[in-house]
Amino acid sequence: MASEASRSVAEALAPAKINLTLHVTGQRADGYHLLDSLVMFADLGDRLGVALADAPVLTVTGPMTAGVPLDGDNLALRAAAHMGVNAAIALEKHLPAAAGIGGGSSDAAAALRALAALSGQALPDDAERLGADVPACLFGRAVRMRGVGERLTPYDGAPALPALLVNPGVELSTARVFAGLEHHDNPPMPESLPRFATPRAMAGWLATMRNDLEVPARALSPLVGIALDALRATAGAHLVRMSGSGATVFAIYDTGGEAGAAAEVIRAAHPGWWVQPVTLG
Q1: pTM of the complete model
Q2: Among 110, 218, 262, 272, which one is most buried in terms of CB atoms within 10 A?
Q3: Is 17 a catalytic residue?
Q4: In terms of domains, do 113 and 180 share one?
Q5: Does the pLDDT at position 114 exceed 90?
């Protein structure tokens, strides 16, 4: 039998998932909410090294380890169990936990891709059982997600979007944010989504859409509103919105230079915040 050291290791990036829109359109009898969301992914994320193993093993390193489950609740380990294999997973965390940017879901999707390559198995067609965001993260590029996250429609109408991600250092419970919704049957996005040539044009249209979770998230944590206001005050910000159930917020700019300059402003004013200029694609 091959030793642990000699086993093949697959490396994978688990990029941040950004909900440019998030319309809550209904709630099923089982309590799951129906969504209509346009999702893009950042060129920043966690990194995984994955190998087949005799027993499940997880090591977590990196600058954002706080709040990451180290046991069977970790979504990367759950992804391996979902595929019926044991895996040794080295997770390097660069994304904050419970932040509305799909960190755990993206980790799970990256683990699924790596394990499929290592084991020769097909990717599972029921990834939503691991979490509503996992199918979109498994798709890994601009996509419209509907239903409880399992209905995916590729979206190729977006330019690359220079953006700034900001998290003020508060964890928000997704369940509590959803519980704070006043209405659970809000209008969806238009059936047909337009195409855009520039970030400014797309940001203008996105401003007519919504994140229905932003109001209850702000009620739970005033820091969300403070972070949104800080981004609105930066030069060149076209759209400022919360991602997912928070507390990460983002702004879209014309250029990466503008996003980088805004990052310096936010870091100087709020040195304890997580601040990352990225490109969304």
Answers
A1: 0.95
A2: 110
A3: yes
A4: no
A5: yes
